[in-house]
Records
---
Amino acid sequence: MLNFPDLATLPPEAEAFRREVRDFLATHLPPLPADRRARSWMGFDAGFSRALARQGWVGLTLPHHYGGAERGAFARFVLVEEMLAAGAPVAAHWIADRQSGPLILRYGSAAQKDFHLPRICRAESFFCIGMSEPDTGSDLASVRSRAEREGEGWRLNGSKVWTTYAHHAHFMIALVRTAGTPADRHKGLSQFIVDLSLPGVRISPIRDLAGDAHFSEVVFDDVALGPEALIGTEGEGWAQVNAELAFERSGPERILSSIVLLDRWIAWLRETGESRHAALLGRLMAELAVLRAMSIAVTARLAVGASPVTEAALVKDLGTGFEQSIPTLLTEAIAADPATAPPDELLRALAYVAGMAPSFSLRGGTREILRGMVARGLGLR
Amino acid sequence: MDSLLTDAAADLLDHACPPALLRALLDPAAAPPEPWQRIVDSGFLDALLPEAEGGAGLDLAGILPLLLACGSHAMPLPVGATILARAAFARQGLTPPEGAITLAQPMAAPSPAALLPAPHLAAQVLLCGTEGGALLLPAAAARVTPLGGGLSRLDWDGAVAGRRLEDGADWRVAGAFLEAVEMAGALRRVLEDTLRYAGERRQFGRAIGAFQAIQQQLSVLAEESAAGLIAAQLAATGPWPDPLRTAAAKIRLGQAAARAMAIAHAVHGAMGITEEHDLHLFTLRLQRGRAAFGGEAFWSERLGRAALRETGDSLGFVRRCLDPVA
Ligand SMILES: Cc1cc2nc3c(=O)[nH]c(=O)nc-3n(C[C@H](O)[C@H](O)[C@H](O)COP(=O)(O)OP(=O)(O)OC[C@H]3O[C@@H](n4cnc5c(N)ncnc54)[C@H](O)[C@@H]3O)c2cc1C
């Protein structure tokens, strides 16, 4: 049986930190219309990430020794919540801050930590995640990209796809096969830190339905990797990648992807004095309040060093459902009276979020895969 | 949640209201008096009164385990309402009335009327006032019309003398709070029973819980139960039910109940709609709770209007008005 953690509250230090984050955003957030801010954590702006790094908040949970802020899970919750509510363009440093940095801290050698972590904290190194491949989606253990030993190092062949911002990243942490065949499943997988500037790496951005190019296809054609590219233990890639996915699933970003659109709509309701959609707004507020409380409850488990994998999957499934319901419900509300003229900015934000919403329950593990994890937590499999 | 209180509450309800007794309690002709006496003897009824006045000095979080246990036992005796009513009378310096007090939303009618579950189990009915405060009427003085689903309509003669509680409180909030929290308990029970059934019932040579289609539904049920428990905890903070946090909990539990009832019955197959099986005791509890003291539409409208009156973004509203420390 699954016992979801009890209600928890953010500690006063975290609320004090919120004020600092707000001050930072007031001076450093570029003025962007709602439809740009609605890109949420897909908005890329290296300059913004560097400003955040100068403030000391990239590598927020990494040790001081490497230039990190050495803050805990609650501070991270607050920073992410404020950034996403403001629609700050966080994509450049996002993956390194959220998962690659913590992964390197946990599994990396002293040399790997000394090399990568300070660069991450200065927002000089951007990372991407190389898990999915053309024939590997939900079934991650079926990866075919392969690194063969060659001399001291490795030779890498294969391809990755849907790799978010590979075309702007400096490094990829890739899950590849180092022994056996795809039939060996979880055995024989390893993770590598691939320098994307090496010869033989070809990166082609893929345009999405909104006209953006955030993800790429990455082809490895006889890429020569040094021995220092292997991260963690050879053959332990499966366990490592699952620990990494747990970092990826637990944050407020799984609730707030449509929040800029929602807030723009609320602003319009207030401007026009329109109250006929009050009930819809109330329903969304109730859901948001409960999801946020659930996310804080999971954060409190992280803060004491637990690994709430099932709980994070549960909140992500509910949270992405909420994010997806917003454009669906607002389409209906905004179109309720064909004679009104909603602001262009609201319509653009709606068009963007409605188009991208299906991806919310795909990226980071699909709805069906997450529900399978919850079922496992319930003892059903 | 305090585990000592949780264990004590579960223990009390396991003894006062096991499923076998529950059926007897629901029967107006056969309802035994012992369960109520057990509750009285437990001292829980004055849980919200200060210790100096013979109470336990608890706040809402302190009585939450008991209320959840009432929900998970589909307790038909009005334990939560009696606790809140006794505290309210005492706070006004009045002696609380004797016996079980049920809270009810009055219906628009020329003379007092209300919808009520198990009216035979209440000594007094506290009717929520529209302008705050409430009116206490003796249950025995009402004409009772059964409506199905465990619900009856009670009509009082316009001349019947009641006792007024002029505390200015919006008792609909208190009613919605109790329903929401008990629904969270019932939802948890529905999850546990449905999981057990999915492990026991076999078809096509396997437990039905081994089928992915069933697993995915049970995961949704578990998600709704987890959301319901957090919503209940969010509402059960502070000394008295807060209108906006109660609104959020009532809305979220109404949604959760609708989803949960459908899944639980789908997984149980035909067995789940029999009188013999216990499932309906808990799904009917959810159904009644969803409709009582205003459904999702009523509380959503209220919560939405409150949000429109504010300035700033949605998360700011949530932090100011719907946070456990707000
Ligand atoms: C915006 C975006 C950004 C992304 N960024 C990255 C990135 O940076 N790096 C990276 O590696 N990947 C990334 N991905 C890829 C993402 O991880 C995959 O989309 C995801 O794992 C699902 O794989 P798929 O798209 O191949 O779908 P499939 O696995 O082909 O699934 C298709 C459908 O089949 C269902 N299905 C599959 N298996 C089962 C099963 N066992 N039981 C029931 N149903 C099943 C799925 O739930 C889904 O509904 C990104 C995706 C998106 C949309």
Note: Chain A touches chain B through 50 residues (CB under 8 Å).
---
Amino acid sequence: MNWILVPQQLVNGLMYGGTLALIALGIVLIYKSSEVFNFAYGHMLMLGAFLTWWFAGGARTGNEPISLPLGWAIVAAVLVSVLLGFLIERLALRPMAGQPLLAIVLMTLGLSQIFEGSVNLLFGVTPKGNFPSPFSPSDAYTIPVPPVDGESIVFLDRIQIGHTRLATFVVAVVAAAIFMLFFQYTKIGLAMRATSENHELARSLGIKVPRIFALSWAIAGITATLGGVLLATLSGVSVNLAAVALVAFPAILLGGLESFPGAIIGGLLVGLATEIVKAATVVEVRNSADIAPYVLLLIFLLLRPEGIFGRHRIERI
Amino acid sequence: MLKINNIEVVYSNVILVLRGVSLEVPGGQIVSLLGANGAGKSTTLKAISGLLRAQLGEVTRGTIEFDGQRIDKLSAEEIVRLGIVQVLEGRPLFSHLTVEENLRAGALFRSASESSIKHDLDEVYHFFPRLQGLRHRTSGYLSGGEQQMTVIGRALMAKPRLMLLDEPSLGLAPLLVQDIFNIIKRINEESGVSILLVEQNARVALKTAAYAYVMETGRVVLDGPASQLAENADIKEFYLGLTHLGERKSYRDVKHYKRRKRWLG
Ligand SMILES: Nc1ncnc2c1ncn2[C@@H]1O[C@H](COP(=O)(O)OP(=O)(O)OP(=O)(O)O)[C@@H](O)[C@H]1O
Ligand SMILES: [Mg+2]
């Protein structure tokens, strides 16, 4: 281990983990409310990033009418994603109510292919490097590290935090906090938590269960778009974003599928694991940072199969 | 208030479960529906509340009227909004939510203001003082009696005019059953809620209700004022487990009785 790099990588990991945590929340939300594991989520995220890029005028060849400031472009993309979330639930999933769960999950896989095809058709297959960012990549805060032990930390006297990274982290944290507060303290949040436990019971209390499903898809559209924007800010827009979002899966499994706090902790852990591995001295290990989340998941699930916050069913007899 | 006319219910298009059930719940009254396992009591309640459809059940004949309006074609969500709420069998809770969150969940569809919800919560705590101290507990860890109270309280939060109760005595100690039924009676008297009470515990049910129906394999086989049914020999023998001497009958005798009845019927 290259110890002098560790503090810097910890910070990077935390920043990256924040974005993963936000992304993971959206998958957990849909899983909780309808028990559907949404394999189209990575593509929803990618689509959200493309929409933002397009609304911000990224595709401009000179005559497109739309070129919004980044903030408004994000708002516009979020609105489209929310609408899309409602439509997916209404047109693709509701007609499948009562079908086996596997069929519905396969439907989400089908949707992901439709999204990928549409994006390729609409925006072309080449990655876009011009995702609008308010920060220049070289802007960074520098935190001086006081020498702890004159010898070992001699090379590292500061940690750098890029403005972009910091901004993505702050946005992710704020969005995740709003998300959690919404669930804990609003009526709709309560209706969603209730529905996630027992559909028939919720229906017997007059809660419109299909509407709750639709709403969870719409909210997942918001987290996906925000997550997409954050990832695109760091690495540009391309169809590959959908694959990058796959790292949210081990994050969720680590946290335990049905838990929001679990998704957040899982996201942070995966972020940290990925970045810390990059501080390894052995080059092969360093280059395998991408599989670090899965190795972590493998070890973890052997020890605790239900995840960190996995719920045991409460049973009283 | 509630009028069921000769309904037939079929599950999954093939399983005929109710074969012509008629019953009536007059406004402000407690009416009891008795019957053995599998007689179709829960099915009857779900036919009223509209929850049948989620289980692939369907009312294929007959009508259900509430205040003169036909409701057998309405969805569960619409029926709750008319003022009919069903308390499902087995006192199901949102077990990861607290007691108070469970209660609030009962009022979600009403879009009532926070102050009126607070007021309604107080009313529930008035009927179930024990719940007040438990309001922030995770409901899944409550005792059976406390769970039953929460479930009835949650139904009250819907401000119903008709409450459908499915076996509230299930698995509770006799003393607690008495408590719960006393409260059910008080809810009926003080809040004016009509109640259709499904029970296997005929003894308590007949003491609480004004009128009762007895079901057997999808049909109503007997009905009358509760006091009268409590005197009826068949009821005494079969459902109350008493012989004419007032002794408890053994399970074997009851089984024999059942078999004999099947042969004769
Ligand atoms: N969803 C369903 N699909 C098919 N058959 C069903 C369904 N629900 C109930 N039944 C059948 O309908 C019959 C009546 O069931 P129901 O639950 O109404 O009886 P019950 O009188 O409430 O009995 P218990 O006292 O045991 O609760 C039973 O034979 C049952 O197997
Ligand atoms: Mg039943």
Note: The beta strands of chain B are 2-11, 15-25, 30-35, 57-66, 69-70, 84-87, 162-166, 194-199, 211-216, 219-225.
---
Amino acid sequence: MTEYLGKVTEGSLSRGLMVRLEAPIEEVRAGRLVAIQGENRRFLGYISDVSLASLSPQLASAPPPSDPFLAQVLAGTGYYGQARVLPKLILGEPSALLEGPQPATAIPPHFSPVHEASQQDVELVYGREDKRRFVVGSPLDMEVKVCLDAPLFVQRSNGVFGKTGSGKTFFTRLLLINLIQKGEAVNLVFDMHGEYGWGRPTESGVEAKGLKQTAVASRVAVFALDREAAQRRRVSPDHIVEIGYEQIEPEDMGLLRQALNLTAIAAEATYTLTKRYRQGWLAKALSLTDEELKELNIPDMTYDNLRRGLDRLRRLPFLVEHPPEDSVGRILKALQEGTSVVLDFGRHSDLTTYVLVANVLTRRLHEIYQKLTDQAQAEGAPGPTPLVITIEEAHRFLAPEVAGQTIFGTIAREMRKYNVTLLVIDQRPSGIDPEVLSQLGTRVLFPLDDERDIEAALAGSQDRAELKNVLSRLPTQRHALILGHALPMPLAIQVEDVTSSQFLSKYGVPRAGEGRPRSKIGDLFPDE
Amino acid sequence: MSGPTTGDAGGKSAMEIAVKVGEVIEARTEEFQAESATLHQPPPLGSLIWVREGEIDIYAVTGSAATGSREPGRQAVALGQDEEELPQAYPQLSKLLRTTFVGLVVGYQEKGELRHYLPPRPVRLHNFVYLCPSEEAQRFTRSLDFLSLLAAQRQDEALGACLRLVSHVHPNAEAFLVGAGRELVPLLAGDVGRLHALLRRLRP
Ligand SMILES: Nc1ncnc2c1ncn2[C@@H]1O[C@H](COP(=O)(O)OP(=O)(O)O)[C@@H](O)[C@H]1O
Ligand SMILES: [Mg+2]
């Protein structure tokens, strides 16, 4: 039997139902999933607010009860707790059995009893773990598992937001493992801090597993920008990525303007150069003669500024004039074979590199996906396997000033037209173009401090005020609010503990080369 | 215990052990005056009392009591005697004085069914008034709907005394008092001073 919380006393569909609490108020948290049993229907909703009430204004202004007997008598009668519950779904309608839960368009009558939702309710709404669905956590203050529908999830670009240290990366790992395992999508992960391929020690000292240390290891390749750094971390990348001059485009210069200290005119000049020299522009730009500059109508000062910027760019070791191997080709090949690629930035985790490489590679891949999709469509064949591109520090690519020009902005806006979607990870959603935010299908929101970030993270969602209340009061450890396309109703969850032995025995495999049976948990954590 | 016949039979056996405490001498629907069977010994304030009329039995809570001259308009005078010497010095005194008390009507029983509101008509004059036996008191106070009648008449002292007395016939006196207190909160939510004072009277 689930915990009894209280009775409905008043309220409305739009503003929520007031529930007079009989459960101890301190245990009733905003965000908790509750079921209301009406006469013929069962309603599911969540607590959006809790408040204290008095039976009369006189009681409200009276001094506190003077002794324990008075306190006992007045608790729950003269003074009581109230919860506001937003009804979201109707479960108990005859049609619901066939079509699943329906949006709540009615409310239960006065004095309907309110309980915490049951396991059955949660499973009815969020499904059980199966071929499509995977467990992401449990509803606030409940033991039951909540699932996300993988095919539904990858239909759109999605976002994971939260302040630094709130659990974004850990959650994204959980997502990636499952997306790979369910075979719903291949992934390209721009792994700025080297956290996805091989795990790094956590704050609590337990090592969190990277994708290469889990059950999906064989379907993941780690590419790196820097062999030395990778080897120092005892990581053996499958391929070292190099980028040719020809792959850099004016669009990239726009993104890197600040980092390279380029004036607007200098960044603009790169377009002039491309027009004239096509793909050879960068090599050429490094050695322009005075006459050429005059002919191109580029002032000396602008050229000096551009030169300095390009010199800085040239010093990046992975940027070579003619790379021996086409890295984009390698990535594409892996993806087409169903292998997800983690691009580990190693010691190059500075933003210039990250932004440049992610943008260059994504642009090329998108072009190719576009061709493949169009081709497949013309032939009536299925398109390429959906590709999910994971980017951390997403606001660098999707800020309002640049989202219009970068490939990431394009992908976010075109939804899934070319079978490419984004998994946007960021600690500052307010820095992302609102238009891009509005295109995100499913959002996973960890606690955010800044009011503007909370507003941005919830922009365009239903019941914003109520969700804001829930989000801004989430417990900080492993808690998130998930909402949007892949979910029948928003839900506050405690994310699975990915360092727990249950989780590791479900997803973990021994380290490469050890070859021990994977059922022995102790072997996953040899004492070091 | 709930059928009309058992209720009646239970009443009859209880009747045998019920203590007669007075006789009705004045009656209104809401309350009656009774003359106490014993001078100076009215039923205690708040005690549950009972007037049986055959068709219906009327339940009341003992309210204010008074002792004075039997003759209207005459007032007793000071006699200056010690209490022990008094009966000898004035043997006729007990004939001249009487004690009366008020019964605050709180419900009735008709065909074995208890009602916690006013009966259709007042009690009849000269009917005897009995102390409600514990079993009957417990049965009647299982519902506390009658509290609103007393609260409306501002009979807070009688009400508090009644609940204290009656609590002892319930298996868990403290739980009974807490429950009764909780019933009073909505009745007196608008007058916190009165509510607190009354609740303090209920403290076990
Ligand atoms: N699902 C989880 N299971 C176990 N520990 C977690 C989980 N999520 C977060 N943590 C803890 O919180 C810390 C920060 O999480 P992380 O994902 O790196 O935050 P972010 O990427 O938002 O900065 C981790 O190092 C880990 O100790
Ligand atoms: Mg992180």
Note: Chain A has 22 helices and 21 strands.
